[in-house]
Amino acid sequence: MCQPVPRPYDKQAEGLFDGNHQAAGIVKALPPTSEKLFAAEFLDKVRRPALPRRDADPHRHGRRGP
Question: Are 39 and 3 a contacting pair, CB within 8 Å?
Fold first, then answer.
């Protein structure tokens, strides 16, 4: 599995989400786009997952709803 947040943002991001930072400060500290923050391999997996979503098949057992 790839490292979702590559250097130098890996350590920086970890510290920003410690509960002690305001949203505005987090936004200022991170790059403006997901392409600059996350590794390309990670974004590819998020955008095109290898496994189908659980709710993609309405005939699947255990389906909720009518």
Answer: yes
Handedness of CA 30, 32, 35, 36 (dihedral sign): negative
Give SS3 for 24: helix
pTM of the model: 0.58
pLDDT band at 25 (very low <50, low <70, confident <90, very high): very high
Contact 13, 30 (CB under 8 A): yes
Q: Does position 66 have pLDDT exceeding 80, yes or no?
A: no
Contacts 24+ apart (CB under 8 A), 44-49: 45/2
How far is the first Cα of the chain from the last one, in angstroms, to the nearest whole number?
A: 38
Taking a C-beta distance cutoff of 8 angstroms, is the pair 5, 37 a contact?
yes
